Amino acid sequence: MKKNLYDVVIVGGGIMGCATAYYLLKGDRNLKVAVIERDPTYSRASTTLSLANVRVQFSLKENIQISQYTIQVLENFEDEMAIEGEKPCIAYRQQGNLFLADLYGRGVAKKAFELQKDLGCSVAWWSPSEIKEKYPLYETSGIEAGTFGFKDGHLDPHAFLMAYRAKAKFLGADLVTGEAAEIGSVKGRVTDVRLSSGHSLGSEHIVNCAGAWAAEIARTAGINLPVKPVKRQVFAVDTKVKPDSPLPLTVLPSGLYFRTETGNLLLVGKSLEDDPVGFDFSWDERRFTESLWPELAGFVPAFDTLKLIRGWAGLYAVNTLDSNAILGEWPGLKGFFLANGFSGHGLQQAPAVGRYISELITGKSPALDLSIFSPKRILEEKPLSEAEIV
Ligand SMILES: Cc1cc2nc3c(=O)[nH]c(=O)nc-3n(C[C@H](O)[C@H](O)[C@H](O)COP(=O)(O)OP(=O)(O)OC[C@H]3O[C@@H](n4cnc5c(N)ncnc54)[C@H](O)[C@@H]3O)c2cc1C
After folding, report:
1. Is 50 a pocket residue for ligand 1 (Cβ < 6 Å)?
2. Are residues 165 and 222 in the same domain?
3. Whether residue 241 sits in one domain with residue 290
4. For the segment 151-190, what is each residue's pLDDT rounded down to a tens digit?
5. Buried b or exposed e, range 16-37, using 16+ CB within 10 angstroms
6. What range does the domain containing 238 cover?
């Protein structure tokens, strides 16, 4: 078996893998870093199938701080990712996020809002009449309040990924097309990643960035990771009545969300209890017509007439313990680092996660302490509490 030697081998070249490679090489261009990706078209990667929303509206301090860092990075991202003067274009639009609360959720929303304010986020607490004034199409009966994140927004996930990927390559990363089949280890320490081609990439630092496939990779190292692939669907609709200005990502107390999309369309989605577990990428029109549309039209009566244009399905890598990221070295296997379980909010966490994992590997003290997300809590079954999972 042919062996290459790397300082770090990353399994999975989605946003986590490419961001991690970038921050490693930004810190030290002499590092030898490989990123293994089996599908460079990214047709099934969660990254490219994402809604690509960024928000500070979380309830856990570290999740808020992660997003604050992301927003800071995004404001200068195209310059930072420029290669020999050529800048990417990620279409980052800060159109805001509006999270709505009913009587039941008001207390939790208020507490999260106060924490966001304390941390210096640009957020506002709106009454139902203020919401109605700004968005006259909304039917606010049953709504107690809304929080609005002024800097929240969305971007083009494919361009975001390509920017990190290209810059990591420019800085010297080896982008390897292949399938990681097994993590090799000896005496509780990783040794290499074995590819299904028969090749092996040797390293003492391996990072699992395999997204919804993370548990499969971990299993080859004897680790039982509580990360499941769960199908989530998004629908693009053309409403007969058009709002006067773009609608921000609006999240109802039930979890139904929608926002204006380029072309005057509306994107709509909702995580449902019975969303199937597995690697299924088919989308189902009835999901929209039977479950989502009635609810959407209940909140925006003007949207009772619309045309379903298209839809798609992607996978959330759901951390079944607590729906939060799992970050850091696995306690039982030296050199095996995880960046997994993002449960639907990983795209916006990539800059902070990539930087953090690179700091852990290179022994730097983290600029943002994310040790709360340590894999140790998985073994100890100590879940974190985050109220704003969508
Ligand atoms: C419908 C939908 C909407 C979303 N909306 C948002 C949002 O608004 N905001 C947000 O922040 N997040 C959102 N997310 C979540 C976000 O997209 C993910 O958390 C994030 O993209 C995860 O990135 P990743 O790199 O871990 O995974 P991925 O992008 O899935 O990348 C993993 C890569 O690993 C590769 N791989 C897997 N196994 C192997 C192997 N054995 N060998 C080689 N390669 C392998 C895969 O091919 C894949 O390319 C959404 C997700 C979905 C599905």
Report:
1. yes
2. yes
3. yes
4. 999 999 999 999 999 999 999 999 999 999 999 999 999 9
5. bbbbbbbbbbeeeeebbbbbbb
6. 97-152+228-316
Whether 316 is in the pocket of ligand 1, judged by its Cβ within 6 Å, is yes
The model's pLDDT over 197-223, given as tens digits with 9 standing for 90+, comes to 999 999 999 999 999 999 999 999 999
* Residue 114 resides in a domain: yes
138 — alpha (psi -120 to 50), left (phi > 0) or beta? beta
Residues 192 and 213 reside in one and the same domain: yes
Give the residue, by CA position, lying nearest to ligand 1 atom 2.
50
Instruction: Assess whether 202 and 312 both reside in one domain.
Output: no
Same domain, yes or no, for 138 and 174?
no
E strand segments, 41-80: 53-54
Are residue 141 and residue 240 in the same domain, yes or no?
Answer: yes
- Decide: helix, strand or coil at residue 11: strand
**Domain with 47 in it: what CATH number?**
3.50.50.60
Q: Are residues 309 and 343 in the same domain?
A: no
Cα 110 from Cα 59, distance rounded (Å): 10
Distance from C-alpha of 159 to C-alpha of 304, rounded to nearest angstrom? 34
Q: Is residue 87 part of a domain?
A: no
Residues 239 and 296 in one domain: yes
- Ligand 1 in contact with 45 (CB < 6 A)? yes
Q: Model-level pTM? A: 0.97
Q: How many CA atoms lie within 13 A of 125 on its CB side?
A: 14
Angle CA 345–136–304, to nearest 5: 75
How many Å apart are CA 55 and CA 336, to the nearest integer?
Answer: 30
Nearest CA to ligand 1 atom 38: 210
Closest listed residue to residue 63, CA positions, set 339, 324, 343: 324
